[in-house]
Design brief:
Blueprint lengths: L8 H4 L3 E4 L17 E2 L6 E5 L1 E2 L22 E2 L1 H4 L3 H8 L5 E9 L4 H7 L16 E7 L3 E9 L8 E6 L4 E4 L5 E5 L6 E9 L2 H9 L13 H25 L9
Antiparallel strand pairs: 1-10, 2-3, 3-6, 4-5, 6-12, 7-10, 7-12, 8-9, 8-11
Helix pairs in contact: 4-6
Bound molecules: fe (ii) ion.
Length: 257
């Protein structure tokens, strides 16, 4: 729950806002120059962190370090920042506190894959009450107008799904601890996106208004057969994973992203 934390009124209505697109084509393609690392997440991904717990090139949650802390006060990684000044500027533009900040590389997948990959983030673990609720910004770097950010209120209910297209310069801010989310990437080459954990507060509110954030957008259409197939696949894969984990005697560990 967000009770007790500072939140952003612009996000209160639906839990997401879509901002106007920026001209990504005018920015250099800095994501090619970053160092990537494998990280357990949803889909076939690699990540290039720009911040981390202590400025090393690694992606672990800040709460998994000693001493643990919330997803705030990310330490900029000098070797990465040197290659990506424009991305750093994007992340710092609102002057909201930045926690984890990284570029994701996602290989093409199917709608069924994306539905299976739906997850909620854990951005507010250890986040003290009275301080800003952590939300996530997604900037699309490559031009993927046919790819879609999927948001669901209810993981298993496709009628709660919103599908937001991801052309270059698309930027969306989401309360990812409440929304189930994943990307369906329909390209034939990897998709790159910048993901930033931002601290809610008046700075973020002003940024959303400055860039004309809207709390409701139309969902991209999708035929019912594709949705039904993906729902069946979701349940089939979850059961398959449950059985595999039971055979190993291991508790299932959810992916995070
Ligand atoms: Fe995520």
């Amino acid at each position: 729950m967000t009770t007790g934390h500072i939140t952003v009124p612009a996000l209160a209505e639906t839990g997401y806002v879509v901002l106007d697109r920026y001209d990504q084509a005018r920015d250099p393609e800095e994501w090619h120059d970053l160092e990537y690392t494998g990280w357990r997440s949803s889909g076939v991904t690699r990540f290039a962190p720009l911040t981390s717990y202590a400025g090393e090139i690694e992606c672990n949650g800040f709460w998994n370090h000693t001493p643990p802390r919330a997803d705030k006060d990310g330490v900029w990684i000098p070797s990465q920042v040197a290659h990506a000044p424009a991305l750093v500027r994007r992340a710092q533009e609102p002057r909201a506190g930045v926690g984890r900040c990284r570029v994701i590389e996602l290989q093409p997948n199917t709608y069924a894959d994306a539905v299976y990959n739906l997850h909620q983030d854990d951005n507010n673990r250890l986040n003290p009450e009275g301080t800003g609720w952590v939300v996530r910004a997604f900037f699309n770097l490559t031009d993927d107008p046919d790819s879609l950010l999927l948001l669901r209120r209810d993981r298993f209910d496709p009628s709660t799904e919103l599908r937001i297209p991801l052309p270059a310069g698309a930027r969306v801010i989401v309360d990812t601890q409440h929304f189930w989310h994943a990307v369906w990437h329909r390209g034939d080459s990897p998709r790159y996106g910048l993901i930033v954990s931002w601290e809610s507060g008046p700075e973020l509110e002003a940024y959303i208004h400055e860039h004309h954030g809207v709390a409701r957008v139309d969902s991209a259409p999708l035929d019912a057969t594709t949705v039904e197939h993906a729902q069946r696949e979701l349940h089939r894969r979850l059961e398959e994973r449950r059985q595999a984990m039971a055979a190993l005697g291991a508790a299932f560990v959810a992916p995070e992203g």
